[in-house]
UniProtKB/TrEMBL annotation:
Protein name: Membrane protein
Recorded superkingdom: Archaea
Pfam families per the UniProt record, alphabetical: DUF998
Membrane spanning residue stretches: 60-81, 88-106, 112-130, 142-163, 175-192
Residue ranges of coiled coil: none
Keyword hit for Transmembrane helix: yes
Keywords in alphabetical order: Membrane, Transmembrane, Transmembrane helix
Length: 196
């Protein structure tokens, strides 16, 4: 199995696995609102100095985002291995993977550690999607740029408190879903390219 195929499989399985696990965690969390709850509430929900950990949602969410981060870092290492290979993309992508692991290790009750971790995964995930355009042909390279820009522009709106009527949870999903969709699509693209 060549490096492109392993890279693609890690990215595809990691992205789809996290989407699936996040949805299962939402279903098992009583009263969870995708509009009003943050995604990280699934790991630990903290409001006004009080935190609630809802099981099994917490374990599912924290474990799945750590596994996603591990898959991203492993894929980044594989992409960076050839001496003549790309350097910017795997570096940005690896940083986003570290951020994902940190989100799982530092739930909401850790305060600023969690916020910094989420910012790292959001920011560097969007930048990695844009930087990946050099590794793809048309139209996938254009789709990657668009999804990366959606993630970054949604992050800017989220940080400035502009939720566009979606609520904080809905706006957060406008950051996360384009990045996850890019991960799944780019992973599938790399697997297909390895086979052609």
């Amino acid at each position: 199995m060549n490096n492109n195929k392993v890279f693609g499989l890690l990215l595809l399985v990691g992205s789809l696995g996290f989407i699936f696990a996040m949805n299962v965690a939402e279903f098992l969390f009583p009263g969870y609102s995708v509009s009003n709850n943050y995604i990280s509430d699934l790991g630990a929900m903290c409001r006004a100095g009080s935190c609630r950990i809802i099981q099994p949602s917490s374990t599912i969410f924290n474990t799945s985002i750590i596994l996603l981060g591990i898959a991203i870092i492993a894929a980044s290492i594989i992409m960076a291995m050839p001496r003549e290979g790309p350097k910017l993309f795997p570096s940005l992508f690896a940083i986003s993977g570290v951020g994902a692991i940190m989100v799982g290790l530092f739930p909401e009750y850790t305060g600023s550690l969690h916020s910094i971790s989420a910012l790292i995964v959001f920011l560097f995930g969007g930048l990695a999607a844009i930087a990946s355009y050099k590794l793809q042909g048309s139209p996938m390279n254009i789709i990657s740029i668009i999804l990366g820009l959606l993630t970054l522009s949604s992050l800017a709106l989220y940080v400035t408190g502009h939720y566009l009527g979606l609520g904080p949870g809905g706006m957060e999903r406008m950051i996360v879903y384009p990045a996850l969709l890019w991960g799944a699509a780019f992973g599938a693209y790399m697997v297909g390219r390895a086979d052609s």
